[in-house]
Design goal:
alpha+beta, binds adenosine monophosphate, 29% helix, binds glycine, 26% strand, Rossmann fold, five-stranded parallel sheet, Dna Ligase, domain 1, single chain, 13 helices
Length: 455
Amino acid sequence: MPTQKLLGLSLSNISIILKAFKIQQLLTNMRILLLGSGGRENALAWKIAQSTHCEKLFIAPGNPGTAKYGTNLPISLLDFEAIKKACINEKIDLVVVGPEEPLVKGITDYLISTPALKNLDVIGPGKNGAQLEGSKAFAKAFMMRHNIPTAAYKEFTLGNYAEGVQYLQQHPLPIVLKADGLAAGKGVVICENHLEAIAEFELMIQRAKFGEAGKKVVVEQFLKGIEMSVFVLTDGKHYVILPEAKDYKRVGEGDTGPNTGGMGAISPVPFADDQLMKKIEEKVIKPTVDGLQKEGLEYRGFIFLGLMISGDEPYMIEYNCRMGDPETEVVIPRLKNDLVELLKAAANQQLDKVNVDTDPRTAVTIVAVSGGYPGDYKKGIEIKGLSDINPEDSILFHMGTAEQAGKIVTSGGRVFCITSYGRSVFDAAEISKEELGKVSFTGMEYRSDIGYEFD
Ligand code: AMP
Ligand code: GLY
């Protein structure tokens, strides 16, 4: 019989109330460190700064765009020791890791195993979970183990090189070759004939074209269809699905020319109806999250599913252990939830208690790049007109910019992007283009056809 009662409440009830109060208190005064310096981090900073739970936001290293929403810290992403010190000195409660490289190199494990940071939460998987992106061979084997639809493949190294050449010779065209490790987005080569495929295979394995990690090669069946991206936030047990997006990777209009990091993105994807999204959830998302759990892969963070939709069926092309860039710049503006609440629920394994609330408007982002990108381009060129962008329907996100003597200058290939809301893809893209017309720098280029298939 419960004898210890206070004001009619049992001790266990009081403890639940106190716990909820503590979570709420922790939530109200959070000090957050966001790692990264691109458009994705500018969009995340924009959103985190709107949270009532964010007491102070730091971004390391950040860019002039993130500086509007928090304090930039001049720390390199791979300087784990300096990041740890910043967490201790600035009394950080939550770290949000933007890009993949620190995740694949183990920033999450490093921070959470630091005794002085025992209360710290990190959004982004540990090194084991980050293999979903860090190793194409790991990701393919994971998909096979969990019956996730994907292209047929085989993996090769120096050990079975001769067998690989034979395999390529009889492989239907085109052939997709993927370097196993991170290769700054360049590790996938699609070969139109067998000679080209064998030459590329030799470059990767014998000559380490993509470094040591690229000496393992995944040879994959070519999938035909339309690509789209789905973003999931998971706590390792539960998940929520964020708005989907489609990015435009080729540099030229009409999807021509070399691949880039992404020249623009749209959300929602007009063909991604409820039926397709349900299929993606059942065939890809659920088995992925269940698979992580079954295999004991600790994962509290974003999973980016790169999908090919063939007919009506989704096939996994790749996992990323982070949000996409520029997809984040359309996904996050459509998220109506308080992002810090979602992130904290992910950290506390309470994502089953939240619902995602999405803005029904369409968001389109168009990226302005430096002339020559994705090849060589100049840096340090002054950008004019950024302050003229109309904030009513559009948001400016800095990507590769820097501040020099009080001026904003270019410092990367993808320089900035403008996201606009509209009633349709066409509408939102028109608004972004109008705003882009107010900004200029020598050599500035952008694709004026983002979302063209949906006009
Ligand atoms: P990834 O780095 O794995 O995203 O690959 C880069 C791009 O290569 C993808 O966005 C696709 O456009 C293309 N790709 C990768 N794998 C395949 C495949 N099996 N079939 C067709 N295209 C592919
Ligand atoms: N936009 C593609 C990526 O972030 O990987």
